[in-house]
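User: Could you write out the 3D structure of this protein bound to zinc ion? I've included everything you need below.
Assistant: Certainly. Input first, then the structure.
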Amino acid sequence: MPLPQEIIGLGRPEITLVWEDEHRTVYRARDLRLRCRCAHCVEETSGAPLLDPATVPPDVVARHIELVGQYAIHIRWSDGHDTGIYSFRSLRENCPCATCQAARDRSPRR
Ligand SMILES: [Zn+2]
Ligand SMILES: [Zn+2]
């Protein structure tokens, strides 16, 4: 699993991760906010969504990004949400770029 070498996104509408294999992953800040899997946003046992997307402002941005050990980042958002942890693995596996999307579409679902 490659690690991100650079994470650019404070106060920006997009959050970019540059991986050590030079792949670039770009998330819209709000999409990443909506992807939060913390206990406030997703019911822990059932996985049911608790976050109402309507409560997340369209111009939400990251106010603070910090590393969590060697595996994740913690983002504090401008809407006051500050418990989100995003693992490098999920950030990379869900990369929304065309190349990664095509690779996911090709993967067999048997
Ligand atoms: Zn959350
Ligand atoms: Zn990608």
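The helical segments are 29-34, 88-93, 98-106.
User: Perfect, thank you.
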